[in-house]
Design a protein that fits this description.
alpha/beta, 18 helices, transmembrane, elongated, single chain
Length: about 475
């Protein structure tokens, strides 16, 4: 009802001209709504206005929009810069340009040329096709290998056609090193050559020049990168569970980034090893034979040998020594018949038990010591303890535990400890295990004497025997 009256009453309004004094100072001027372009709006300091006025809100809104757009636009283009697929930190695809060594095939995929149609070359071709690459296999006899290459998803051409400039700037050299010299050197210049070869076992010398360095010397105008030599044809064709690190090395940093992106696209983890001289170590990786297991194997062999010698000595040799000591010159060799069965199997059991105990013993000892120190180090516990109590937990409790264990062994095996009759010339286990703890306790006793203890206490408190004059 009110809206009708307002609308109908609007006809009776006396609209004055802009110059009429009746409109002063509350003049109402209706202007058409027009939003200027972003470039035409000057950004100048304006006087302090009320935050709730329409002029302030409109100007602040335009300023925010303009600054937001300008911050997202790079100079000369309206698109943000993209990250290359071949960068070490990214695996997204990028279109080919003047800075991209990959050529683009008719299907829009990046093209890679593989020299060689052997088992490794075909397996790598299939893996590259699965990674969305256009693979061209350059072969000396394309007709003979065309069927196998086609089954892998690639195309086969002659050697000269595959190395043309318009084919690709990335070439995988998957032929034996002795045939590198037969390649057309002039067609390889300016390309990225990925050497996947390995040395022969009899030539595995890390001080010699690597095959990748020899290829770089043969083609000085190319960018040789050593990679993929730690993979086998089986791993490429069947895949590996989890991830596998693939070393990559080369003198050109950009070429290394390209190959790292390619390795990552194949589903492996590239490891940048730096200069091409590192290829000497990389080519020796396939010849490593359990380098981390050498120490463990040595310890196992020593434990087994000791167990085997002890069992043979106690069960077979000791009885004969006793007979000889009694004047009986006869030797009984019947016990040696079970050396291959009983002694061998028992030695294996003793070795397994000892190694298993050694695996868990450090953890148990660490848990006990960490538990004692951890409880004593709790703020709620250490805050309620005096220095004497804290010192007892951290220092004296360990000695008390050692003395208690030593006393247990001494009293439990006293009869064996004082028995020095060694018919087999071997002390008992109780006599052997008590030596180190007993020596430790004996060496600790002089430190507990009052004269020595007081001197050590003074040293801990900063006492100096030689008087030093203070520097003025």
């Amino acid at each position: 009802m009110d809206k009708v009256n307002l609308v109908s009453g609007a006809e009776n309004l006396d609209v004055k001209e802009p110059g009429d004094s009746a409109l002063q100072p509350e003049e109402i001027v209706v202007q058409p709504k027009h939003v200027p372009s972003l470039e035409s709006i000057p950004i100048t300091p304006h006087p302090k206005l009320d935050d709730h006025t329409p002029e302030t809100r409109q100007e602040d809104s335009i300023r925010n929009v303009r600054e937001s757009v300008e911050s997202k636009m790079s100079l000369g283009t309206a698109f943000p810069p993209y990250l290359s697929r071949d960068s070490v930190g990214n695996s997204s695809r990028t279109p080919a340009d003047s800075g991209n060594p990959f050529q683009v095939g008719p299907d829009g995929r990046k093209r890679v040329v593989v020299l060689g149609s052997g088992d490794f070359g075909l397996a790598l071709t299939g893996r590259l096709v699965q990674a969305d690459y256009n693979v061209v296999v350059a072969s000396r006899n394309p007709n003979r290998t065309r069927e196998r290459v086609t089954m892998c998803g690639g195309s086969v051409v002659t050697l000269g056609e595959g190395l043309r400039k318009e084919e690709s700037g990335v070439v995988v050299v998957a032929i034996p090193p002795q045939h590198h010299s037969s390649l057309p050197i002039n067609l390889l210049a300016g390309k990225i050559l990925i050497d996947v070869s390995n040395r022969k076992p009899d030539k595995n010398d890390p001080n010699r020049h690597s095959q990748a360095e020899a290829l770089q010397t043969l083609v000085p105008g190319a960018k040789v990168v050593k990679a993929l030599n730690v993979l086998s044809a089986y791993a490429l064709s069947h895949g590996v569970r989890g991830t596998k690190e693939v070393p990559v090395c080369g003198d050109d940093e950009g070429a290394r980034r390209v190959v790292c992106g390619m390795v990552r696209a194949l589903g492996f983890d590239p490891v940048d090893q730096g200069r091409l001289s590192k290829a000497r170590e990389v080519e020796g990786i396939p010849f490593r034979f359990f380098p981390s297991w050498r120490f463990a194997f040595t310890v196992s062999l020593v434990v087994w040998s000791l167990a085997f010698l002890i069992t043979v000595y106690e069960w077979d040799v000791c009885d004969n020594l006793v007979n000889l000591s009694k004047g009986n010159n006869t030797m009984d060799w019947s016990g040696f018949k079970s050396v291959a069965s009983s002694n061998f199997s028992i030695s294996c059991g003793c070795t397994a038990l000892t190694l298993l105990s050694l695996c868990y013993l450090p953890g148990v000892l660490s848990f006990v010591m960490a538990g004692i120190l951890g409880v004593a180090s709790l703020p709620s516990v250490s805050a309620t303890m005096t220095w004497r109590e804290f010192n007892f937990i951290q220092s004296r409790l360990g000695w008390f535990t050692l003395v208690l264990a030593l006393a247990h062994v001494i009293f439990h095996g006293w009869a064996q400890l004082i028995n020095f009759n060694l018919p087999c010339y071997l002390p008992s286990i109780g006599q052997l295990v008590v030596v180190v703890p007993l020596v430790t306790v004996i060496l600790k006793i002089p430190l507990l004497l009052p004269c020595v203890d007081s001197a050590l206490t003074n040293i801990r408190q900063g006492y100096e025997r030689v008087s030093v004059k203070p520097v003025v």
